[in-house]
């Protein structure tokens, strides 16, 4: 019997890296291959015993070669940012996904798990318990969400025709030790003293701890063929008040809690002005204030994960309190080393 080969794109990213390390530790009978472009992180994965291939997913030929012999592919690579040039998002999120799908069909891959995003639901309005069939806004909130939605739809259409079993996950706000996107960015705003309380203190959101998302990916890898073409919301299943989390972060880092307030309409108007300036004069630099960022801190948004529970057997094993304690402790240690 041949050894199962699992290929993970985006292995030098937060989720992809956590996934390949988990697979190495729990599935010694498999061959785990990580694809990525960050050579330094790739060498770190190799040092841990993970096969790493430096691959640019916009190079279709390189993708085909990397997927030779693959049984399962997890496509977690993406350009995930609230700001950037549209052509960069198209290349990283649409073209690259097309290349992965083409290679999966050509190589007759058994299962493709695609990491999508619940950002496609975002319309600036409060929503609690969003289901996978939620009506999507006429216009995506940003180019990241727009290109991820196109990629997800094209992936399902092509896999259905090409005979590849595909599932997609939409994990909400992944965090944990090693993340550089969510809590570390808020921590930087706290250090600068520029963070203002916007909206209601009880603004409720969903977050997803990294270990739980890895569990969801593994469940999707092993899911029944009957679930082909299904998409799943993923979160910790424990909505939190985002400003309570921010206050806990400030306390953990021995930084002042944000006290000053800014009315949401004023914040949004200011962000619109800043975005317009950057779009015209500094398009390659992310503005210090974004409408999307303001809405993430002031608009209720939680997901219904019933489908993942019922069909995949998903059960978040790390509670939100434990997840925050682990993450904040790591951030506090990093702060002490600064």
From TrEMBL:
- Residue ranges of domain NAD-dependent epimerase/dehydratase in the record: 6-234
| One GO cellular component term noted in the UniProt record for this chain | cytoplasm
Q: What Gene3D superfamilies does UniProt report for this protein, alphabetically?
A: NAD(P)-binding Rossmann-like Domain
> Coiled-coil region(s) at which residues?
none
Query: What superkingdom heads the lineage?
Result: Bacteria
Provide the GO MF annotations for this entry.
aldehyde dehydrogenase (NAD+) activity
Entry-linked InterPro entries? Epimerase_deHydtase (IPR001509), NAD(P)-bd_dom_sf (IPR036291), NAD(P)-dependent_oxidoreduct (IPR051783)
Record protein name field: Nucleoside-diphosphate-sugar epimerase
Upper taxonomic lineage: Bacteria, Pseudomonadati, Pseudomonadota, Gammaproteobacteria, Lysobacterales
